[in-house]
């Protein structure tokens, strides 16, 4: 682990602590992702925004831990972890699986009287939009690896290290199970916080209609921003996405 990382708990990482920042952004990784995916976001937004990235078990410095394969279990843990981080306005950003998880965490925070100022939902269809038949987590290792490579969200150097990639398969499979078995609770209340949805115009995982459906999950303001690209459009549009986050938080 880099010396620049401040580990606040097993679950949270602060790469560039910004104690004087007026707002805090909590970032939730995609399936197979880790906290370090958001290192560039943290670097770009500090010191204006204090960025905290979530580290799921089963990867990097938590590789020896059992992965969690259920979104609601993860949300229960993380909502509790974040209660001590609400000393300033708290925003949530999640990509793919992370967007679903951020949504569930937002529900729990609002139920406890700690409403986020905004939820950024990136690269994920709205919680009410379920696709039948998607069970990548039940596939063999080769199919799972092929799926990861096709979505192009994994570090190219990691993709070339087959042995390392295979060692991460239990965590990746758990993430896919969490994403694919997730069902929004029928009685879930609407969020009160604004929702900003970001999506790639050629993302095979999210249609425009599925992205627009996020509007139905909040009584707050809603905005949709579409970028050229696939599921990991944000890799090619990082400056624009970061500017969008900054615009929403630094006012």
TrEMBL record:
Keyword list, A-Z: Hydrolase
Highest taxon listed in the record's lineage: Bacteria
Keyword flag Hydrolase: yes
SUPFAM superfamilies: alpha/beta-Hydrolases (SSF53474)
SMART domains, per database record: PKS_TE (SM00824)
Pfam families xref list: Thioesterase
Record field: transmembrane: none
Family designation: Belongs to the thioesterase family.
Protein name (record): Thioesterase II family protein
Species for this entry: Kitasatospora aburaviensis
């Amino acid at each position: 682990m880099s010396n620049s990382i401040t580990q606040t708990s097993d679950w949270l990482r602060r790469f560039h602590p910004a104690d004087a920042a007026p707002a805090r952004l909590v970032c939730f990784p995609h399936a197979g992702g880790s906290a370090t995916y958001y290192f560039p976001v943290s670097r770009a937004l500090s010191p204006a925004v204090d960025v905290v990235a979530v580290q799921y078990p089963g990867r990097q410095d938590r590789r020896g831990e059992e992965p969690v394969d259920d979104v609601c279990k993860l949300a229960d843990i993380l909502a509790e972890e974040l209660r001590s981080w609400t000393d300033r306005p708290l925003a949530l950003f999640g990509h793919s699986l992370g967007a679903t998880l951020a949504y569930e965490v937002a529900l729990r925070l609002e139920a406890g009287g700690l409403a986020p100022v905004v939820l950024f939902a990136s690269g994920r269809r709205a919680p009410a939009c379920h696709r039948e038949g998607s069970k990548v987590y039940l596939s063999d290792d080769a199919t799972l690896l092929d799926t990861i490579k096709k979505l192009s969200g994994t570090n190219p150097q990691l993709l070339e290290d087959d042995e390392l990639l295979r060692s991460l398969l239990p965590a990746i499979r758990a993430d896919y199970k969490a994403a694919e078995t997730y069902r929004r609770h029928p009685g879930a209340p609407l969020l009160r916080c604004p929702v900003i949805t970001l999506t790639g115009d050629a993302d095979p995982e999210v249609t425009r209609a599925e992205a627009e459906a996020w509007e139905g999950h909040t009584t707050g303001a809603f905005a949709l921003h579409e970028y050229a690209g696939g599921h990991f459009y944000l890799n090619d549009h990082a400056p624009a996405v970061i500017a969008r986050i900054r615009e929403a938080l630094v006012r």
